[in-house]
Amino acid sequence: CMLHCFLFLLVFGRAIHAIARISDEFWFDPVEKGLALRSVNSSRSAYAYVFFSSMFFQHYCWTAVSQPCQKEKQLSLPCKLIIKSVLPVFRCVNVLERNVEKCSIYTNINDHHITFQLLCKHGVVKTYNLTFQECDSLQAVFAKHMCPNILKVHSRLLADIMIHFPTSQEEVTLSVTPMKVCFKSYTEEDTDFSKTMLTEIQLNPDEFDYFQVGVDSEVTFCLKELRGLLAFSEATSVPVSIHFDISGKPIAFSIEDMVLEASFILATLSDVEKETASQQPPGFSQRQESNGAAVPSKKPQWNGNTRNTASAKPASPLAKQEIRSIPRAMKEDTMGTEGTAMTEAEARAVLEGAAAETHHQKVRRLQWLSYSKYCIFQFHSLFFGAVSCKEKDAISHTFHSLATASDTEEDFGNVPSSQV
Amino acid sequence: MRFRAKIVDLACLNHFSRVINTIAKLAKTCTLRLTVSKLYFILADKVANGGVSLWCELCQGNFFDEFQMEGVAAEHNEIYLELVPENLSRALKTAQSAKAVKIKLTNKHCPCLRVAVELPSISSSSRIVTHDIPVGVIPRRLWNDFREPSVPDFDVSIYLPVLKTMKSVVERMKNLSNSIVIEANLSGEMNLKIETDLVSVTTHFKDLGNPPWASEDGCQSSAQDRDLESMAEARIDIKKLQQLLAGQQVNPTKALCNIVSKRIVHFILLHEDVSLQYFIPALA
């Protein structure tokens, strides 16, 4: 599959940075209608999806290539990239816009390479050749339209709210009634109040462009994971929609306009139903819906901020999960069902991977994520190069390997120049 | 024990924030003493602080539009609280466009200073941001630890050079040495010196002027007999000096220091409505 595109760097760069807050790797999935980027964190409590329609790009060319080993439904093979490899391309996004005239992205499935090429001022061309892992698709199943609570607000307002929390604040609780909205620092029974500064912001429903509260609720989610989306949505100036339900159900922050859409779906805290029901603070009463998404009780703890440390290997128990056949619709949030039962093996995988906080007995997990087995073809390598030459006509070019640079930039000096 | 106060004027709020920011740079934890007319930020000279002590005094009337206080008892109408000034600084940081800031002493889960910032919003009612800053109430029997330090029997008193200049000199010296020698004489001359195995650097200031100190009971005669050229010096921790200078966000009206040779350096920084005294002991 070949994909050529030029793009608005600031927005694209911010999208990459936003996804970087979720995980160390992401899915790069070009399809006919546009380019989808997806990511999920290691504890599967945060999922990010950004879709750039082909109209976002100056030029978008996508060709389907039939592969013998493909499942019939998939016309293109999504691939997984390590964020750390891609971030340097978009490192100083603000500076990029000034210096870069064009950015092109090519993929060549046969060679397992994606190439980012930046045509900069003064004839400098920076080319980043990144190897990817082939993988099966990552899909989120989340019925946004079934959420009783929907808020819509300009990203500027959301940023103005979150600025009151310290950057170290991990979790934030959103509490709504039809009369008021409140964001506050998350506290639990054993919070040491004498050591913690607590912040609370109360807003009037009038401040929101759209305000619908079907059920009073208090949901707690990870602020750190959200901050990336806030920066991204400020770059796009698109209002942010917040869809959520009661505690335990995921909360979705999404933006949508003519050429792009993005959704960050975060799990929210819910108490595990357990012996100490009497000690539960009122805000976190567990209400399990019997829709097949039953959670085996006493399932522990989760550390939502664990990054993907073992990048190359999948946790084997995950491979055993049943693979649901999901039609490859463009809009992922129109899926009908709500949840996927997690198998015991999976639960163990979450345990093994995540740092356990056994004394809290609180769980935050996205129960609905379907995650198929993926296979790895080869270990990735990263190749930087700079070629000083006059601007090439990028469209006609297929990159297999990088021409030897006549004047390499210093900071690429210690990267091994492996060949494709 | 009750305390509530309110600031409505933006200029006062900014001024108050600046004072808090300065204190936050000097002390991780400090004592806030509230009386009917004044607020004090106090750091007592404990070993844990490296022997430095801080005394900062504000007239509440210059900052607050409303100020009501009831101390622990009628005869002791004061409140002593221990707090982390950085928390207060953070709470005020995002209040720069506030309509009003209210501060109240509360006791929900534990004693707290509740800072409620009323921010303008597009809707009819304002946005309210509340910060609960945990504080420790200091019992009366410990109040003696926080008495105002007396001015030491100094050898030389001299006005400081322009703080910005002094700060940049000290910052550069900080990279070379851990300690710095301040020396000054009664002829308005001051030297800042560092000396290491590799290098010694001295910066000379002159024509600084020496503040006149009114003698209380004539015991100033010893200072008056002092040779005008003779330098009093003290070697102090350079980081403490740098913190003091870096924390100054506004140029003080008066800035001076009193040097007790080889014992202690006493800095006094005076603004219109705030006075700050900072003691740095000499290193052994």
From TrEMBL, chain A:
Swiss-Prot/TrEMBL keywords: DNA damage, Exonuclease, Hydrolase, Nuclease, Nucleus, Phosphoprotein, Signal
Signal keyword on record: yes
One GO location term (cellular component): checkpoint clamp complex
Catalytic activity: Exonucleolytic cleavage in the 3'- to 5'-direction to yield nucleoside 5'-phosphates
Enzyme class, broadest EC rank: hydrolase
Biased composition (Basic and acidic residues): 321-334
UniProt subcellular location: Nucleus
Protein family per UniProt: Belongs to the rad9 family.
Function: Component of the 9-1-1 cell-cycle checkpoint response complex that plays a major role in DNA repair. The 9-1-1 complex is recruited to DNA lesion upon damage by the RAD17-replication factor C (RFC) clamp loader complex. Acts then as a sliding clamp platform on DNA for several proteins involved in long-patch base excision repair (LP-BER).
Stated name of the protein: Cell cycle checkpoint control protein RAD9A
Organism from which the protein derives: Fregetta grallaria (White-bellied storm-petrel)
High-level lineage: Eukaryota, Metazoa, Chordata, Craniata, Vertebrata
Gene: Rad9b
From TrEMBL, chain B:
InterPro entries: DNA_clamp_sf, HUS1, HUS1/Mec3
Superkingdom of this protein's organism: Eukaryota
Keywords: Cytoplasm, DNA damage, Nucleus
Compartments where located: Cytoplasm, Cytosol; Nucleus
SUPFAM superfamilies per record: DNA clamp
Swiss-Prot/TrEMBL GO biological process terms: double-strand break repair via homologous recombination; meiotic DNA integrity checkpoint signaling; mitotic DNA replication checkpoint signaling; mitotic intra-S DNA damage checkpoint signaling; nucleotide-excision repair; response to radiation; telomere maintenance
Gene Ontology CC entries for this record: checkpoint clamp complex; cytosol; nucleolus; site of double-strand break
Family: Belongs to the HUS1 family.
Subunit-structure text: Component of the toroidal 9-1-1 (RAD9-RAD1-HUS1) complex, composed of RAD9A, RAD1 and HUS1. The 9-1-1 complex associates with LIG1, POLB, FEN1, RAD17, HDAC1, RPA1 and RPA2. The 9-1-1 complex associates with the RAD17-RFC complex. HUS1 interacts with POLB, HDAC1, FEN1, PCNA and RAD9B. HUS1 does not interact with RAD17. Interacts with DNAJC7.
Job of this protein: Component of the 9-1-1 cell-cycle checkpoint response complex that plays a major role in DNA repair. The 9-1-1 complex is recruited to DNA lesion upon damage by the RAD17-replication factor C (RFC) clamp loader complex. Acts then as a sliding clamp platform on DNA for several proteins involved in long-patch base excision repair (LP-BER).
UniProt-recorded name of the protein: Checkpoint protein HUS1
Source organism: Fregetta grallaria
Gene name of the encoded protein: Hus1
